[in-house]
Amino acid sequence: MTALVPVRLGRLYLTSRRVPAAIAALAGCAVALHLVLRWSVTAGTFATQLPLLVVGAAAAVVGATHRSPFGEAERATGSRLPVLRFIASLCLAAVAYGALAAGAAGTALTFGATGLLRDLGGIVGVTLLTAAFASGNLAWLGTLTYLLLAMTAVALGWTTPWLWPARPPLDAGAAACAAATYLIGLAAVTSRGTRDTGRD
Amino acid sequence: MTASRAPAGAARLLRIELRRTPAWLPLPALTVLLGLASPYGRALRAPVALWSARSLALPGALQVIGPFVAGIAAWAASREARRQLTDLLTTSPRSPLARRLATWAAATAVGLAFYGLAAGFIFAATAWQDAWGAPLWGPVAVGALGVVAFSGVGFAIGVLLPSRFTPPLVAIGFLFGLQLTLAAWYATGSRYALASPVVDSVGPGAVPFFGDGTGVVVVQLLLLAGVVVAALGVPGLTDPSTTRGTRLLATALVAAGLCLGGTAIGLARTARHEPGRGTVIPRLAGTATVVPYTPVCDRTGPLPVCAHPAYRQVLATVSTDLTALTGQFAGLPGAPTAIDVGTPGGVPTDPGVLRIDAPNSQGPMSPGLIRYVTRETAAGALLGIEPDQPATATPARRAVADGLLLAAGETLTTHGPLTADQQRARAAAQRFAALPATARRAWLAAHLTALRAGTLTLEQLP
Question: What sign does the dihedral A90-A96-A98-A104 (CA atoms) show?
Fold first, then answer.
């Protein structure tokens, strides 16, 4: 009986965060990425921008699972909530990467598997930071803002590593910025949870 | 509630919704993005202030405003389901449709107010820069209707699928859709993409010469009107508590919207290209007549440099930039007698005039880039190199054009490693530029006509 408690707790946590629906949405993103890579333009800035938007959508889905429907009542129930947040967030990001990598299999993704990992991880980090410090409900506003800046960087050739999608896939500075953003975002959402403003 | 109290009640409901709508939250980020990541900010930083380019920047700003507005509307639409208030609110006396429309109207009103402020700012800046002409109200209306349409579709999807995943997927989906239409137009030339509000409805440089009557803006307005009408009908169709009459009206709205959208797509399919004027919809466009104008000229350099009055702001700059180049060939047999800046094909000019493009009106250019591009296009045009026809750039023409640029003090730019042929042409250019000015001019006097005709080879260069 005692051994089943963590399993039940995990299942309830995932259900409350709509993780099954998120996995379905991530599968949809994988299909969308495959269709984009198979049927849309294969050269120029659009060949980077369009797949990047699908990656951004997957990151927004990962971010949207973090909002708690219970608020303060849940935070008062025990000390295991951060552990659940950490494991769920990490696993869902891994699922997102796996789904997108599967979607890109057999096609010519301009930024490759390494670039996909960097871009997805970094954008998930941006979403988690927005969720932790601005609004859990509207974390996608941060994702969308970042995507618009990154697309402009791709189109205009901006070179700052903080807009990592515009840098080559193996650029060390861009990878470091994306990794740092993800780790800080993960730490923030693990320790604080998402911010409930009440306004939204 | 009596008929006289109904409008007051609706206004009060709208006021409450305006206070609680989340549409205010993204406005600071939107302001930054508008300046940095949209055609709006790029047009504001362009070296040439044209009313046409500034007006077109407003529907272009939908690339930024549209996804935010759609996502926020989707979020607002799911509020009742999210707060689990649907059953409770069903018992309230006000019609669910009116309540939902008030929520949508508030989110849309904030988006429209932001768009209006953006329009006011860019037009004030353009007027302050003393630009030639007047605003184009068609593209401005496309942008405004685009905000309403994006909000309407976002709201309709939020009503149909109230989920925490709906707003982000709607917002990013809209951004994706807009980018897809831009890719379809600029990368593949699909005519259907013309109906998209973010595709330029007219070439900004063509407007001073031909006006803005291409008909494309009408197609875009038709499509957006169809989307708005159809989106307004969706909440009425999905709400179980609506009456039969309301449901019929909602069905008619959706059908009318689809008809309007279909008409727009059908018209876009008939688009064709006209030289100078750009893409037009034959059934909607006026006749291609050039609006009479008196060119303004700068005669301070070796050759007079003339332009439409719309480009008078940059005339002195372009003329100064060209001096070092035109001085090398002005007065030679077969050489142009004047430079024309910005006049598109399809507008007649004197036979001896050399046409070059005007500096960008839709994006920023540094003074150094303006100088380089102006000199490069002038040198290429002098020798008969057409930018969109690579075959015209023969090695001899390219070498002399590059030599003229080097002699004018430019540093040549390269994109990637040079091929063997390009290296030979580059070496010939450096030899040509190293000649004394009088020797270079004497060689040009003897060979310019043959060079422009394309009959000279690289081996015949000095």
Answer: negative
